[in-house]
């Protein structure tokens, strides 16, 4: 009986916490509503400005991302760290459109991008956390094959096809910087609230 009583008490505390959070959210919505009425045009403008933001010098814009092709060979991990230094990450080519576009950009080289199965063999994951969709890939024939029992990082070849490769090999790499995607989404959610 005491276990049931403890469970009921814990549930009451959770409900109180949720109620407090709900009150905070309601207050924020009221504040945002009055702020939105006062500044609706500027907020819309912010969304447009962010989504049309220019890419830094030497970066290539495609849709809502900027890409930098770096020809200096690095290991996959070092390449990722270099991208982080640029406030970016290795490119996550999660859509067929991005894959097609990047295939036209890497002519003449082999580049690391942000896909690996380092955590578990065969469990491919994008560095940006996007769910991996095996139906939207561009693997070369018979790839990924983990040929040397340690090919855990993805590279894109000069023809746009993908290959799994040993992460400690050194290759050129592609950094991606999302331009305003998150902020534009946040602004649109605030405007709709």
TrEMBL record:
PROSITE patterns: C_TYPE_LECTIN_1, C_TYPE_LECTIN_2. The keyword Disulfide bond applies. Keywords: Disulfide bond, Lectin. The keyword Protease does not apply. InterPro entries: C-type_lectin-like, C-type_lectin-like/link_sf, C-type_lectin/snaclec_domain, C-type_lectin_CS, CD209-like_CTLD, CTDL_fold. One of its GO terms (molecular function) is carbohydrate binding. It comes from the Eukaryota. It holds the Pfam family Lectin_C. Residues 62-176 form the C-type lectin domain. This is C-type lectin domain family 10 member A-like. It comes from Branchiostoma belcheri (Amphioxus). The gene is LOC109483972.
